[in-house]
Design a protein that fits this description.
The complex is a heterodimer of chains A (377) and B (281). Chain A is an alpha+beta fold. Chain A folds into two domains: 4-232, P-loop containing nucleotide triphosphate hydrolases (Rossmann fold), CATH 3.40.50; 238-374, OB fold (Dihydrolipoamide Acetyltransferase, E2P), CATH 2.40.50.140. In chain A, 22% of the residues lie in helices and 33% in strands. In chain A, helix 2 (92-102) crosses helix 3 and helix 3 packs across helix 4. Chain B folds into two domains: 4-63, no CATH class; 70-278, MetI-like (MetI-like fold, Orthogonal Bundle), CATH 1.10.3720.10. In chain B, helix 1 (4-39) crosses helix 14 and helix 4 (73-104) crosses helix 11 (197-212). The chains are: A alpha+beta (377), B mainly alpha (281). The interface between A and B is medium-sized, with 24 and 16 residues.
Chain lengths: 377, 281
Amino acid sequence: MSGLSFHDVSKRFGQATVVDRFTLNVAEGEFVALVGPSGCGKTTSLRMLAGLEEASAGRVMVGARDVTDLPARERNLAMVFQSYALYPHLTAAENIGFALSLQGLGKATIKDRVQRAADRLGIGHLLGRRPKELSGGQRQRVAVARCIVREPAAFLFDEPLSNLDAKLRGTARIEIARLQKSLGITTLYVTHDQVEAMTMADRVVLMEAGRIRQIGTPMDLYHHPVDLFAATFLGSPAMNLLPGEVRHADGEIRFLSAGLDLRLAGTVRCAPGQVTLGLRPEALERLPPGPNRIAISGIVEHVEHLGAETLVQFAVQGAPGTVMTARVPGGWAVRAREPVALSAAQTALHLFDATGAAVPLHFTGPAQASADRLVPA
Amino acid sequence: MARAPLRTDRLIGSVISHFFLMLGAGFILLPFVWMLLTSIRPASEVFTAGFNPIPSSFAAGTNYSEALTKSPLLQYMWNGVLVCAGILAVQLLVAIPGGYALAKLSFRAQPVVFGLVLFGLTVPVQVTALPIYIALANLNLLNTYFAIMLPFFLSVFGIFLFRQFFKSFPQEIIHAARLDGFTEAEIILRIITPSAVPAIAAFAVFSITSHWNDLYWPLIVTTSADHATPPLGMMIFRDQETGSNYGALMAGAAIITAPLILVFLFAQRQFVRGITMTGVK
């Protein structure tokens, strides 16, 4: 087992740059997720590490070994593919053990290791079957078993769960994350699903258009997105955005948007200019506006009851055409076409400047009392 | 009741289409039926006027034993087996890796090479016959099995067929194999070839049929009965018998056709799969 690293790796197809100076270090035993919309270069980056795609520039390393010019078979990496890529003419056991037989291990050793890997994934009883006799979830497990049996330097996953149904995906997510932790093996995991990235990874690498937009822990990315792209890509439902302007007047800082005029309480240091205000759906609470809270009200347009929580879409008062989503406790009685008055803590605000970059917010006032949340509406 | 007219329509359509299919089948099968009928007829009845499919007296025993004893028919067939097997083996050895390279590897000359393969498909065997004949003659290789097989070792059709077949093979499986530690040769041998059984069966039927039946090339490079393939043998047989004993001749033809029918029946299912999967024909 060893770490992985990319140094200024680029990939060009003719004129198009698919991956642009990609640099990343994955520590030994770490689980890093590459996430981004389709076409962002995440899979290409992974494939360059695996040796399935040649890097146009830069170096890729497995541990201390520079593998840039080595063929895939000499890189000692194992990969789970989106389609699982099982050998169709071989049984599950042969699929799992094929790499070992190439290494020249004895039959008994192979059988033993295959059985252990299969048992670990709960497919010990399916070893005699061929891929077409297995369900999607079982194939996926065979593909994972084929990886772990080799005890490679690192695991690579390329959207391994996207062909599973929603329920299975939930369990598989947990299983892979637990397996990775118990084996302690370095893992690079490509997905377009932000939930997978957030729930499984130690660190998330957010990519867009061939470039890294942000690297950090899932909570880092969620709470401190560096730009509008990061803010809207992570989180479901997406962050509410309100374009507007920051003005300084009479010693106060105000956020203006259409007919909306929010006082930023004088505790936020922010230069005047065009901005976008961002608010996570769960930041909108039914609490009275206080000194460190901004008030937002509107008319409920649509209510989605999810049981434990309720998603409320409402037209923001004073900003015609702007609809926000609030995530509120499921016990709330809320109906369409009724007015709703909400507020959000200033600490939950995100501001982005005209280029989309996050504006650092400095709070000079007293810290938000956490007890605020307990005040009944 | 409302569905009755539809059913009648369908029935009529089915009857008509089957009629035409049977007409086509009859047209193709008639020569073979005639061959079989002639092979069991006494010599006196071969040229009698009229269309009487059932011979008045059966001469199957005489005709077939004559075909087997008066000419080295089994030797010809053994020659055919050797030649066809040799050709097919080398063709597969070349065409499978060639098709794989053209379908799955990316290299700069690939479009050019593939273009040349397509070009090769358009060159008839007669064009290269003379230079190959001269070369074989200079090397003193005429009248050998090798001479009969040589021009067919490289089958551009085979390369093309396998390339089409491998095109649809999932790239991810090849990638998985590379990461599993396979070399390209091992991928071809242990992953690609087992998956290509239908294509191999289809190609084998094409190859065996055309080389078993080939008269043109063996006629050019062999003069001896020792190396003659079945059609050439039939020709030698006809000359020996001065063309009079058509019963025995047809018995010989029936005997040398039988293995082909067996090959096709054996490979039929795979053959059809191979044809449909490669999009050839």
